[in-house]
Amino acid sequence: MVVALATVLLTACSEAEKVSSNMSQDADNFKIDRQITVINTRTDKVILQATGKMSVERNGKKTIIVIKTGKKQFKKHLIYENSWTASSIEQIESSPSNPYAYNFVVNPKAIMHGWTDIQVVND
Hints:
This protein has helices spanning 2-11, 15-28; strands at residues 33-40, 45-59, 62-70, 73-80, 85-92, 103-106. With 123 residues, it is an alpha+beta fold.
């Protein structure tokens, strides 16, 4: 009886659910390029956009992004969202020329003056 129930439950999982699970696992293992976009919902301006091989974890209003930038190199970014922001994460095509290419863009004109200070640091 237990075996029959387990078989029914396992076969009830749709192909789409399996593919979604596999893609999420591949993305978390830095095999899939993603793009995250954060938009100010009151002005419709893009505040931030990041692309690359990244793992994304949502924890309440905080989004943790880890981007693979080299064979064993990673960068971590935290995004704090509020009632004025919305974000989307999508799978995109990889860059065939550089598997570790990534882009992280902040639109300072879309951020309210005094809300945050932005510093760019080159390693």
